Amino acid sequence: MRDVALRAGVSTMTVSRVLSDPGKVSAEVRQRVMAAIEAAGYVPNRLAGSLSSRHSRVIGLIVPSLENSLFAPTIQGISEVLRRNGYQLMVADCGGSDAEEEALVTAFLAQRVAGLVLHNTRHTAAARAMIRRAGIPVVETGTLTPKPLDMVVSYSNHEASRAMTLHLHRLGYRRIGFVSLPAAGNNRALARQGGYRAALAEAGLPPEPRLMLEMPPGLPSGAEAVVRLAEGPVPADAIFFAGDVLAVGALFECQRRGWAVPGRVGIAAFDNIEILGQMVPPITTLRLPRAEIGRRAAEILLDRIQGRSAGPVRVDLGFEIIQRAST
Amino acid sequence: MRDVALRAGVSTMTVSRVLSDPGKVSAEVRQRVMAAIEAAGYVPNRLAGSLSSRHSRVIGLIVPSLENSLFAPTIQGISEVLRRNGYQLMVADCGGSDAEEEALVTAFLAQRVAGLVLHNTRHTAAARAMIRRAGIPVVETGTLTPKPLDMVVSYSNHEASRAMTLHLHRLGYRRIGFVSLPAAGNNRALARQGGYRAALAEAGLPPEPRLMLEMPPGLPSGAEAVVRLAEGPVPADAIFFAGDVLAVGALFECQRRGWAVPGRVGIAAFDNIEILGQMVPPITTLRLPRAEIGRRAAEILLDRIQGRSAGPVRVDLGFEIIQRAST
DNA sequence: GGTTTTGATGATACCGGTATCATGATTCGG
DNA sequence: CCGAATCATGATACCGGTATCATCAAAACC
User: Fold this and answer.
1) How many domains are contained in chain B?
2) CA dist., res. A227 & res. A230, Å (int)
3) Where does the record place the HTH lacI-type domain (chains A, B) (predicted)?
4) Which domain covers residue B28, as residue numbers?
5) Is the pLDDT of residue B96 over 90?
6) CATH number of the domain that B42 lies in?
7) Is residue B10 part of a domain?
8) Which CATH number do you get for residue A173?
9) Residue A127 domain-assigned?
10) In chain A, what residues touch B280 (CB-CB under 8 Å)?
């Protein structure tokens, strides 16, 4: 920058102004400085800028896994909005561990991020404390948690799960199986189990532990689950797969075994991944606002950072049941 | 940090040493400083550190799309290795546009990243120049490009495509259709087309334009392609879907139409996404080292940054044909 | 016309660390 | 036992920007 200033015959302050608030510099000088910037191939140093001005244009995002394609639309949504506003995104995955999340929060705070997006809604006490002390805005996106750190943008996993269960009941199913990811340490899986139980109670169906299963993520899990529940002691007439690609694995298993879907067993899924609608039969599922969550999360974060809003924010983006041929 | 130094009764230099090179500080003082850090809840400012030391611990990654789950394993691999070494990852997507990539490169250089990972192997002249002037190491990962900017970690899209085409020929197929993503501006799609053509020539099959198709990504594209090629003027007896999830969409379409696979048409895919192996029938495809590419890219980048290596590096991680029931 | 206001630019002091060299104490070799 | 080497620590000058206030000329006001 010093170099640019010399070339243009002005002070570094003027160069800085041209870059951050061009209106404050006379047109003639601005031209000269621009030319000098071009000539020098000058790339400003944001580290120095952020250090001096005490605010950065970097947002930190922590997801449980980068490999899981479910987060991809959300990440894309965040990235889109940030980019349009000249912000950068720093990403890391905590592998579902709270301790790792805490370490990442520390690392991001050390980088002086201007805000954080956390997919998890469970955090260590230390992480909460650090974030509070740092005084930066935070958005949680995993589920509409009742006690957010700061702001939330999501949908209610509880309500979505409840709605789908009631939907299956309305279709006439009476022994509705439920498969989720392990709920230990996963607020989302927990909320979905709760929604399922609440729906059963509302429908007057007795809870049946042998119809509930927790499985690790992955297609083979779904395959295993559909067999266990459809051939178990209490054969399910429909199964609600409330996690990941479990339903896809289940339908493939049915195809392999020649089981009619929904004749032998109805199948419902939780996420609107594209493939569900293309399968034979297409699978009943929920439309979740994955990309929209990312965009809105980024937007309200920027609103706060740029002083366009103040208090806590809670955005419920809802969900929608997509009834298809599999139920 | 000044606060920590006061609490511990030492200079800031000593605090800095405790954090970056504890061996240089006596055990007793180190204890005192650690305690002070703990008590003050001190989180170091990496911006200041990087500015002063002139090197950062942030790596920039630019992919064509964050939404496409094909990049997920690579990103995860990079993230894994970086994290283990105390580095952070900055991610952005350029939507396949060279100009956007250039803008992102500028933004990352402004953040003074220590290195770059670029998935694309095409770059604007300005981007190449900036990177060269910045003097930071770069790894390209999209394909084993013949003229890399600096380092490459990938597999050969040309060879992989050629191998699969020859494989289909060996299985007895003679009218092998080929579907790829639009090759304009995409070196990977281009290389795959080249490999297909080379294989045809080797096998002594005449090139047949009506057996080649370029389709946008997505399941419906695959569905459309399989119909057009299997029912076209020159009906394909096998189709090699060299991109994305095209093959999945194609198989679903066959299921819907009741076409026997491979009886009516053989189907081969390019990527080893999990679902291909679970479908009915499971789809013949290539095993590509997606995650390994990410890990190795990060490793050789860190090797260079930390001075463990110098010259250009070219890592061919190869590929493997997975023959399944669909061909 | 003199004074106040406005606008453009510059001088300077940081932001919060680290590199570098200086300092004083301790250890070591012969 | 003395000078050199080693070790632990500190003082200081940056890294490359921006905030803040000062300066001075031109415009606006009464």
Assistant:
1) 3
2) 5
3) 1-53
4) 1-51
5) no
6) 1.10.260.40
7) yes
8) 3.40.50.2300
9) yes
10) 252, 255-256
* A260 occurs within a structural domain: yes
* Region for residue A324 given its phi and psi (left: phi exceeds 0; alpha: psi -120 to 50; beta: otherwise): beta
The domain boundary residue, chosen from B19, B35, B51:
B51
Residues B129, B85 share a domain: yes
3-state secondary structure of B218: coil
Task: Determine, yes or no, domain membership for A327.
Answer: no
Digit-coded pLDDT (tens) for B195-244 = 999 999 999 999 999 999 999 999 999 999 999 999 999 999 999 999 87
When pLDDT is cut at 50, 70 and 90, the band that residue B153 belongs to is very high
- Residue B311's CB: how many other CB atoms inside 10 A? 8
Which tokens in the block code for residue B175?
A: 């009218």
Mean pLDDT of A95-115: 96
Kindly tell me the burial class for residue B279, based on how many C-beta atoms sit within 10 Å of its own C-beta (0-12, 13-18, 19 or more): buried
> A51–B48: do the CB atoms touch at under 8 Å?
yes
Q: Helices (H), strands (E): how many in chain B?
A: 13, 12
Judged by CB atoms closer than 8 Å, whether chains meet at B106 and A220 is answered as: no
The DSSP annotation for B50-87 comes to: HHHHT--SEEEEEES-SS-GGGHHHHHHHHHHHHHTT-
**Do A128 and A197 belong to one domain?**
no
User: pLDDT by residue (tens digit) across A199-256?
Assistant: 999 999 999 999 999 999 999 999 999 999 999 999 999 999 998 799 999 999 999 9
User: Which chain B residues have a beta carbon less than 8 Å from that of A79?
Assistant: 66, 91-93
